[in-house]
Write a structure and sequence with these properties.
This protein has 129 residues and is mostly helical. The chain is 68% helix and 6% strand. Strands 1-2 form a two-stranded antiparallel ribbon. The protein is rod-shaped, with a radius of gyration of 22 Å.
Length: 129
Amino acid sequence: MAQNKETRSYKFVVTEEIRAEWDNRIHPTLQDTLYDGLKAPDDDMDAELLQKCQEQKAADALKQVEAAKYRLRNAEYALEWAKDRGFETEFNNTRLQADVTFAVEKVAKTIDTHRFHTNAAHAYWYYLQ
């Protein structure tokens, strides 16, 4: 009787057969490394569910992008307000500039998150074709 071998794919443990099928259905325009962080689907039904989950995560990430942009505008307004009213102390400028920098980084990070989940949904979509 053949042994059912398992392999570790990032944080997911799958059989070699499932992983091989997943590896043979890699989307031609997505980076191969994207697949390292994705669960290989057990079957088509699982792939459909995983695709929907990734689409929902992408939609949520897009809302987070909008919220991060709002926080960035607020941080920029606070910095501008302090300058306009003569509250330009070294402490104030450093703190307010740090708020702006943090908000810029948050926008970039949430855009990357949105891209990852969108691409993940595309990977599952391609698997189903």
